[in-house]
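Progress against Task 2.4 (sequence-to-structure conversion) is shown through the following example record, which the project officer requested during the mid-term review.
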Amino acid sequence: MIKEISYNLRNLTFLSTIGFLVISVLILFSGSQSLIAFFLTLLELLILTYSINIITGLTGYVDFGHAVFYGIGAYTAAFLIVNVGTANITPYLFSLIGGLAAAFFALLIGAPVLRLKGAYFAIATLSVSEAVKVIISNISALGGSYGIPLARYVSYDVVSAYLAMWLTLLFAVILTIWISNSKFGYGLRAIREDEIAANVMGINTSLYKLIAYVLSALVAGIVGGISGILYVYVSTEYFKVDISVKMLVSMMLGGQGTILGPLIGTLLYYVIQYTLVTSYPFLHLLIFGAILIVVVLFIPEGLIGIIKRKFKQLKVR
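Structure tokens generated for the chain above:
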């Protein structure tokens, strides 16, 4: 029965993911700038949710400072555009370098930070993000507290940004599927369940965590670079903690550590946010907070957990 449930869930994951990828690419040909712009912000949060799912969902290390990689990617791309130029090349290539810069930063801080666990890790990552934000705001070469305007170097191009974002989503989905079905992914889940036992079983927990941290930073950094080019402006707003909170909330709503969870969670987050903002503009944050508390207390495994239980109940009948 467990095999049948897993088989059904795999089919649901495959069909839902492929269906969303097809629909999202068709949006590009709709000709509606408003629809493309709406889906663009959705894709941005979705990719960020996939990125944090690698370190927090699979490994269990809650990263409250994940926005630091988003910000580093944005600043790296902006700095290169200003100082190198975009003659004969698409500026979105710099977003890839932004991702590599974020991954390199994760490699530098990962070894000491990942020695911490639980709330200590969450506080440490948040502190790192705030520290980087303050440092950048005091570097004149990076625009100081005013940031880096890019309107002189690149134009606002929603279609190109959408295509770059969609390709990054495809990369994030393939990366998540590969990790989830690999020995590396099983090792990360073992660390999440019991790190000491995983270590005893021969898993190099330090190396596994560091690789997961670097990969999650790489994806977030690429998204940051694309966003900076899209909005033709980069500032320390890219390091805001509420960006990390959005990623975490979307992941928890869908189901952490799964392939389908980030997709379902991000869509659900958008629906709830849109409904609450339009219906209760002055109370939406309070109501949204109450919904999150209910989710954390009663369905910590997210919507994917409910779907799994439904499959089991159907098989029992």
